[in-house]
Design goal:
This protein has 137 residues and is α+β, with helices and mostly antiparallel strands. It is 31% helix and 31% strand. The protein starts with a strand and ends with a helix.
Length: 137
């Protein structure tokens, strides 16, 4: 399976007292392959969920779900190869970063490294709030 397009969705942190493991937020990936099949990767604390489908209604539902929970979605095309393996904590950020050959330990670090690979912002719910703040000062 060769991916043509890969999207990385960054989710907002949850309240610590309702979900301590989600207090730092979450990162998932989804994308399109050559044979017009979509994949959805969700590395979470219970394991990694991998969903593969070609049915239009399932694809739309999964993409809508991912976008509804995200504040930032990046489209990433470039990938690098890691020169040597480095054991890192198995978090969603490290897992998704490894897909692109980057080492990251935080969502901000992953975002910065993916943007350095010329990733494109598809959705940025935070940019509207920042532009309002900049206009007011």
């Amino acid at each position: 399976m060769h991916a043509l397009e890969i999207y990385v969705s960054f989710q907002k942190p949850k309240r610590f007292w309702t979900d301590p493991f989600g207090a730092l937020g979450h990162v998932e990936a989804f994308g399109l392959t050559r044979d017009n099949t979509w994949f959805f990767i969700d590395p979470n604390r219970y394991g990694t969920d991998l969903r593969i489908t070609h049915r239009k209604e399932e694809i739309e539902a999964e993409i809508d779900r991912a976008i509804a929970r995200s504040y930032l979605v990046l489209r990433v095309e470039k990938r690098r190869k890691l020169k040597f393996p480095l054991p890192v904590p198995l978090t969603c950020v490290a897992y998704i970063g490894h897909m692109f050959g980057v080492r990251a330990f935080t969502k901000a670090g992953l975002r910065r490294k993916l943007l350095a690979l010329d990733a494109q912002e598809v959705l940025n719910a935070t940019s509207e709030g920042k532009s309002r703040r900049q206009e007011g000062t």
